[in-house]
Amino acid sequence: MRHIKWFDDYDTGIEDIDTEHRRLAEHLNEFFATCDSSCEPAVMVRILETLLRETQRHFAHEEEIMAKVGFPGLDGHRVGHTALIDELHDTIDSFRAGVTAELTAKTTQMLEDWLLHHILNEDKKIGKHTGAID
Ligand SMILES: [Fe+2]
Ligand SMILES: [Fe+2]
Predict the structure, then answer these.
(1) C-alpha span between 7 and 105 (Å, rounded)
(2) What pTM value is reported for the model?
């Protein structure tokens, strides 16, 4: 089963952001675990909707923090957030239409990629900007 294990290296050094990232990773792990056991469309949609809500809240908070610390890449970062939210919406629509092995495999990969790649490639730049990490 797919499971995201958190490493200190994923931290941005900004406590609020890191706490929220860990919570998002827990939601992804819940998705992976449920996917393995039942994969009931209604259950999967509910988990993905919770993930969407938490992600929207996190992105708004993160954008607020970026504005507060004068992060120069805010506009581009926001575009990335919007694209991820759009992708999550599309994924939820696909799950509503029916669950297939191909869809769950594709979604599992997408969720893991976006969380980790976005954090490692983009969010850590915020911590570097504030000097919270090297
Ligand atoms: Fe971000
Ligand atoms: Fe983030």
Answers:
(1) 24
(2) 0.93
**Cα 58 to middle of ligand 2, angstroms:** 7
Taking only the tens place, the pLDDT of each residue in 52-79 is 999 999 999 999 999 999 999 999 999 9
Pick the CATH number of 14-130 from 3.60.20.40, 3.30.70.1350, 3.40.50.1240, 1.20.120.50: 1.20.120.50
Quote the CA–CA distance of 106 and 44 in Å, as a whole number. 14
**Residue 19 neighbours by CB distance under 10 Å:** 11
Q: Closest by alpha carbon to 29, among 111, 131, 103, 118?
A: 111
The alpha carbon of 119 and the centre of ligand 1 are apart by a number of angstroms equal to 6
Distance 111 CA to ligand 1 centre (A): 14
Helix residue spans in the chain (DSSP H): 15-37, 41-68, 74-97, 101-117, 124-130
